[in-house]
């Protein structure tokens, strides 16, 4: 699609967005809240007079599998507050015998448990909000909502809930400290946006108080009701928290006979509310030993693979820093800070110097993040991190800065500016740190994110430019446009992207520079009309994806992909999908398709190949469920067969036993390598209570000749305060069943404590 088409469509959408927003108090779905005159005791009984006098939100509307009737699960919601807490009380009708949950572990995934949830938008901007959810077993989940519909559950904070279970219903009582929320008290009547959500897995139903069309998820803030404060919420006060940690660590490298290293360390974080809606986070000598290990995948790509961030400090308000650009052109990617993959020199006990290629931790000395709202329309973000030197990598310290300003426009859109800077330092012969004036990398950019009032139109348009010292900057720019239209029947989007050959984002994720690409996707949903079919099939339909990539500046075709599929989705998150495709690849550099170090296909070679894939996911509501994906077809100048998936057994409510698997069998003609790769990952996650959890994850990966074992015991002894015991082991796969040969192992004991001032 040409840029002119995008600009024309953008003009129409901007005009559409100019219609004024109706006041929150004029919403059809309204719920009044008044201050409680007596102490609310959190016990799950709703027997205080404030609950009896409160207005009731009921008559929930179905969101899934249909959106044309009231929900089958009845709900009655009340709200009240006092000087310290916002209270939510709910009577939720559901037979106790029908409860489904994965485990008692906090922050459970969506779709894995029966749940009652509340989405709160204190600034009524329909873009940013808070999410609190609880299961019938009183397992909690909290998260932040950004971009109107994206939920991240990596945010942790204090709130409280109690539940009483009865034969045909359960009652939940929630207390959310006003210090946990970010809002402003205004003169006159205060009004927030709010919605309540029910998920019943056995009933195959999602329902909401304010109706949400089934084309959108219930978390979507475009579809919310009004919370009208008859009495103003309390004026937000000071909010300061310290989260210190202490850690003991012992580790040994058996592969290179490195002596055992024992370490004791301390550090911590601080959270300071500069204003009720603007937060300052500080970290000193941070440690992330308790973070889950990366889920490995077999790498058959010509380019770098993306692994998500899992470290808590970088995850809160991630949308302000890490969502600029497209998924393959992020100017800021937090894993570039404090993590690297490189060859490190070590000295063995025999005095030999060896080089080891590993995922390595670069020490972070300190960092700060200022993020939040200045008012209803303006958001800002400022992140600065300082790393230390790694002598074995011959790597000096570095400073990382990301600055963001965002302005809400029209109903739900936003215009943003971003600046990312990396400054490198070196260590001279006198062990003094000195600044390298020319060793820097910077990216500056502008971006417009479009969300229409009815949420049917979505778009993203950006322009970024990089500046690098001692490197060419002739074509150091990246620009793109994306526009999507989403309705109940049609999901259609299209985009174009340009990445200059000199574009460098050292703190970002840009696996491929020097390219111009176009992509299109169309999905058509067919909903059954007959009631007999609707009980068996939620939705079926077709999808078509098309991607074309040219090199830049030559504009010669390098990659093309066409994928046509048919899908069916059934109750219980069960699904079936068949997909056929055609791919074309032109090699601009030599490449071994097995990534196993064999003979490479020559530069200039081109290939057209056809593939077919079949996938099935079983009913998650049953104690045993599984997923299987099978693919076969041509692969460069040979053939490939692959199968992957997962087996899961749910021992309700104590946890899951799972096994992920992936097998790739590649056959290429001589003299090129043929290879078979196994990736097997058994996983156990157990919840002994709502505060004691144990998990073990093993990854057997023949492509990288490594077996990784990661075990973690977590005891949450107070709200947001934890004790972790983490054990990590690495072995060689080629000797694992012949008497395992250990590469390295480590044992970590860490305690964190959340202290409010």
TrEMBL record:
<dbReference type="Pfam" id="PF19313">
    <property type="entry name" value="DUF5916"/>
</dbReference>
<dbReference type="InterPro" id="IPR045670">
    <property type="entry name" value="DUF5916"/>
</dbReference>
<feature type="domain" description="Carbohydrate-binding">
    <location>
        <begin position="42"/>
        <end position="189"/>
    </location>
</feature>
<protein>
    <recommendedName>
        <fullName>Membrane associated hydrolase</fullName>
    </recommendedName>
</protein>
<dbReference type="GO" id="GO:0004553">
    <property type="term" value="F:hydrolase activity, hydrolyzing O-glycosyl compounds"/>
</dbReference>
<dbReference type="InterPro" id="IPR010502">
    <property type="entry name" value="Carb-bd_dom_fam9"/>
</dbReference>
<dbReference type="GO" id="GO:0016052">
    <property type="term" value="P:carbohydrate catabolic process"/>
</dbReference>
<feature type="domain" description="DUF5916">
    <location>
        <begin position="240"/>
        <end position="662"/>
    </location>
</feature>
<dbReference type="Pfam" id="PF06452">
    <property type="entry name" value="CBM9_1"/>
</dbReference>
<dbReference type="GO" id="GO:0030246">
    <property type="term" value="F:carbohydrate binding"/>
</dbReference>
